[in-house]
Amino acid sequence: MATKNVTFDIESLTLGEALAAEEASGLDLQKLMASTTHRMMLAVFVQRLRNSEQPPNWQEIASLRLLDTQSGRSEA
């Protein structure tokens, strides 16, 4: 499933979403925010979490092609 047009405003991130991302990825939020790729993955994770209310699989997000996420921008 391709993910397109992902827009992410870091200021909208909730504590629960941050915790879910940390648990799914095995990384702390500081590390997730430290690189562009991690922020892109966090944006996709949060977008899917908000649409399904179920934590998405981090490995599934990691397997997305970069082009599938490029049409959206991560605002950090």
Overall domain count: 1
Structural class: mainly alpha
Low-confidence stretches: 71-76
Q: Approximately what portion of the residues adopt beta-strand conformation? A: 5-15%
User: Kindly, what is the distance between the CA atoms of the first and last residues, rounded to a whole number of angstroms?
Assistant: 25 Å
What string gives the helices and strands in order?
A: EHHHHE
Strand order of the largest sheet: 1-2
- Tally of DSSP helical segments: 4
Mean pLDDT: 83
Shape: globular
* Rg, alpha carbons: 11 Å
- Largest β-sheet summary: 2 strands, parallel
- Count of distinct strands: 2
Please estimate the helix content. Answer: 40-55%
